Amino acid sequence: MENRILLLEDDVSLIDGLQYSLKKNGFDVDFVRSVQETLTYLSEIEKYDMLILDVTLPDGTGFEICEKVRKNGSQIPIIFLTASDEEVSIIRGLDCGGDDYITKPFKLGELCSRIRALLRRAGLSTQGTGAVMECGDIKIDLLGSRVLLKGKILELTAAEYRLICLLVKNANRIITRDIILDELWDSTGDYVDNNTLSVYVRRLREKIETDPSHPEHLLTVRGFGYQWKEVDE
Q1: In the CATH hierarchy, which fold is given to the domain comprising 130-226?
Q2: What are the structural domain ranges in the chain?
Q3: What is the largest CA-CA distance in the chain?
Q4: Which of 218, 193, 209 is nearest to 90 (CA)?
Q5: Counting runs of H as helices and runs of E as strands, what totals does the chain give?
Q6: Which tens digits make up the pLDDT trace of 69-114?
Q7: Kindly report the CA angle at 147 between 146 and 151, in degrees rounded to 5?
Q8: Mind naming one GO cellular-component term on file for this protein (predicted)?
Q9: At 6, phi and psi to the nearest 5?
Q10: What's residue 2's pLDDT?
Q11: Which fold has domain 1-120?
């Protein structure tokens, strides 16, 4: 069965190439060209398996769509198309709930790889073996995709949620940065750099640690990676 994608892009010269390439790779794509037009599709978002959103549009930004989708409770995978690799733009996209980004100009083959990797991960994350994962003062409700710290629900982006699941699953063990990148992103690894992973870790610490500069849960093991320490309530 073909995966359905809703793609927001206003650059006509890019749309033709995208349409041809994505169709050839087995994706069924609906194109929208403005924020306003995209909003009319959101009531039927469950028809789609993924959103690909250009950041800069004549009537707004892709961030607005992403924020609306996440506010409505949908965990649909979202990729941003950014015109520059400025960290500010990337952080904004990840913060508002995006799962990945790709910088223009990009190779269509790379975009297809990213799409497949993200759909694969989304499929894995919905399967979940046990319904709840507990570790000290953290509880992860896998069916509801919710994380509770001392009984309070944490507001996490989809990527932060995947990261905390991986860490808690391997509690008290050191996980290398390479393993994290490989598990959370594509196995080719170079699609997401160490810098982006550092951003995720920093944001996650701000949400879970009492004092992010002296973490108790998410520890950095210099030269290796990270370790999730079990902390009792």
Answers
A1: Arc Repressor Mutant, subunit A (1.10.10)
A2: 1-120, 130-226
A3: 56
A4: 193
A5: 8, 14
A6: 998 888 899 999 987 666 777 778 888 888 888 888 888 888 888 8
A7: 115
A8: cytosol
A9: -105, 120
A10: 75
A11: Rossmann fold (3.40.50)
The gap from C-alpha 171 to its chain's centroid, in whole angstroms, comes to 22
Residue 193 has pLDDT above 70, yes or no: no
Q: Are strands 50-54 and 78-82 parallel, antiparallel or unpaired?
A: parallel
DSSP letters for 53-113: EESEETTEEHHHHHHHHHHTT----EEEEESS--HHHHHHHHHTT--EEEESS--HHHHHH
**Strand order from edge to edge, sheet including 138-141:** 132-135, 138-141, 146-149, 152-153
Give the list of residues 6+ apart from residue 209 with CB closer than 8 angstroms, or none.
215, 216, 217, 218
Instruction: Name which of 163, 195, 206, 162 is nearest 87 in CA terms.
Output: 195
Q: What rounded mean pLDDT belongs to the chain?
A: 85
Q: At a CB cut-off of 8 Å and minimum separation 6, what does 134 contact?
A: 140
Question: From CA 20, how far away is CA 125, in angstroms rounded?
Answer: 30
Percent of the chain scored above 90 by pLDDT?
A: 36
Q: Which two tokens stand for residue 61?
A: 């930004």
Residue with tokens 């998410």: 218
Position 69, amino acid: V
39 with 68: CB under 8 angstroms?
yes
| Gap between the Cα atoms of 4 and 50, Å rounded | 7
* CA–CA distance, 109 with 92 (Å, rounded to integer): 25
